[in-house]
Automatic annotation (TrEMBL):
<dbReference type="InterPro" id="IPR002207">
    <property type="entry name" value="Peroxidase_I"/>
</dbReference>
<keyword id="KW-0630">Potassium</keyword>
<keyword id="KW-1133">Transmembrane helix</keyword>
<dbReference type="InterPro" id="IPR044831">
    <property type="entry name" value="Ccp1-like"/>
</dbReference>
<dbReference type="Pfam" id="PF00141">
    <property type="entry name" value="peroxidase"/>
</dbReference>
<keyword id="KW-0812">Transmembrane</keyword>
<keyword id="KW-0408">Iron</keyword>
<keyword id="KW-0575">Peroxidase</keyword>
<dbReference type="GO" id="GO:0016688">
    <property type="term" value="F:L-ascorbate peroxidase activity"/>
</dbReference>
<dbReference type="InterPro" id="IPR002016">
    <property type="entry name" value="Haem_peroxidase"/>
</dbReference>
<keyword id="KW-0106">Calcium</keyword>
<keyword id="KW-0560">Oxidoreductase</keyword>
<feature type="compositionally biased region" description="Basic and acidic residues">
    <location>
        <begin position="237"/>
        <end position="253"/>
    </location>
</feature>
<feature type="domain" description="Plant heme peroxidase family profile">
    <location>
        <begin position="97"/>
        <end position="351"/>
    </location>
</feature>
<keyword id="KW-0472">Membrane</keyword>
<comment type="function">
    <text>Plays a key role in hydrogen peroxide removal.</text>
</comment>
<keyword id="KW-0934">Plastid</keyword>
Length: 412
């Protein structure tokens, strides 16, 4: 880690992974609100199907904001992701970007049906009133880092940008590929922000019970709680912000970013399963162990998964990717309802189309493969549930050839 140049340091005010950006000040007197261009006729509307334009105006004392009734543009999402990758190369802000996405989504309450009252991934954290929640201390630095990207790609909602940044940060730090979808719609005003107190605390009286109370409210289970806790493999905690951790350790005194704080792992910008190994051992006094971290090995149900992840990084990566994707969708309203996928999953591309394998009458192909070839088979009278009949054209050629041979033989 010593080879990494300086920029962004990490900080934690609660259980979720955390980091601060480089020394950046917030000017609360500036903010941006975006309004979708009006579309008065079907013809004009069609022209804007793939090109969404926004009009930006400044307002005062509202934090960052955009008013948009539509979700994100696919091409702009792809380009924004590339810009986030470049940002990470110079700012090393992986932890704080993950924390930003988590804290925007982590306010979800499954017992509330209405949007946006239910909370969740809706971009509400861009408003100053929510930034002032104790659990969100320091996240304004993440917003400052992402604002130039938001200004550049006005066709990407804040809700999508926060989740895109978090997933990209995990992947760029060496973590698993997150099966993300986009198209989240933003809330439009500070009045739609959730009340304070929905995010988990780092040191409650009964850590395991507290984790379950908060994450069960989101609709997550014990396995997902433990897997998501593993993201503490990234980041540092600063006592002046969160009340937890040492001012400096041998792992943090030289940065990158502003020196100081206490990390959960020695290589706190590398996403792996070392968090579980280090928490289990508890041998290094320079590594942070919060009460909610210790609970993963103290609680019998949590311990099953924590032990597994300490031994098997592949299992951790698989479960983490699924849990992260689930968390990022909590409470979100998607436009279109099915969401927007930037990358197709490897499993959707991995099976080769071998017609002979299927037309033999065997049923070994997957459902995905059947869907892929359905149209081609139906075009010539077959279907994935009914093997093709004989190839009549080929049969005619064979019959003609046989007759020709017989004619030649009998003729001689």
């Amino acid at each position: 880690m010593a080879a990494l140049g300086g920029a962004t340091a990490a900080v934690s005010s609660r259980i979720l992974p955390s980091a601060t950006g480089a020394s950046l000040s917030l000017s609360s007197s500036r903010s941006f609100f975006s309004f979708e261009c009006l579309r008065s006729s079907p013809r004009i509307s069609n022209l804007f199907l793939n090109q969404r334009r926004v009009l930006e105006v400044r307002v005062s004392s509202r934090g960052y904001g955009t008013v948009s009734a539509v979700a994100s543009d696919l091409d702009q999402l792809k380009n924004a992701r590339e810009d986030i990758k470049e940002l990470l190369k110079t700012k090393f802000s992986h932890p704080i970007l993950i924390r930003l996405g988590w804290h925007d989504a982590g306010t979800y309450n499954k017992n509330i049906e209405e949007w946006p009252q239910r909370g969740g991934a809706n971009g509400s954290l861009r408003f100053e009133v929510e930034q002032k929640h104790a659990a969100n201390a320091g996240l304004v630095n993440a917003l400052k880092l992402l604002q130039p990207i938001k200004d550049k790609y006005s066709g990407v909602t804040y809700a999508d940008l926060f989740q895109l940044a978090g997933a990209t940060a995990v992947e760029e730090a060496g973590g698993p590929k997150i099966p993300m979808k986009y198209g989240r719609v933003d809330v439009t005003s500070p009045e739609q922000c959730p009340e304070e107190g929905r995010l988990p605390d780092a040191g409650p009286p009964s850590p395991a019970d507290h984790l379950r109370q908060v994450f069960y409210r989101m609709g997550l289970n014990d396995k997902e709680i433990v897997a998501l806790s593993g993201a503490h493999t990234l980041g540092r905690s600063r006592p002046d912000r969160s009340g937890w951790g040492k001012p400096e350790t041998k792992y943090t005194k030289d940065g990158p970013g502003a020196p100081g704080g206490q990390s959960w792992t020695a290589q706190w910008l590398k996403f792996d399963n070392s968090y579980f190994k280090d928490i289990k051992e508890k041998k290094d006094e320079d590594l942070l162990v919060l009460p909610t971290d210790a609970a993963l090995f103290d609680d019998p149900s949590f311990k099953v998964y924590a032990e597994k992840y300490a031994q098997d990084q592949e299992a951790f990566f698989k479960d983490y990717a699924e849990a992260h994707a689930k968390l990022s969708n909590l409470g979100a309203k998607f436009d279109p309802p099915e969401g927007i996928v930037i990358d197709r999953s490897p499993s959707a591309q991995g099976e080769k189309f071998v017609a002979a394998k299927y037309s033999s009458g065997k049923r070994e192909l997957s459902d995905a493969m059947k869907q892929k070839i359905r149209a081609e088979y139906q075009a010539v009278g077959g279907s994935p549930d009914k093997p093709l009949q004989s190839n009549y054209f080929l049969n005619i050629i064979i019959v003609i050839a046989v007759l020709a041979i017989l004619t030649s033989l009998f003729g001689n």
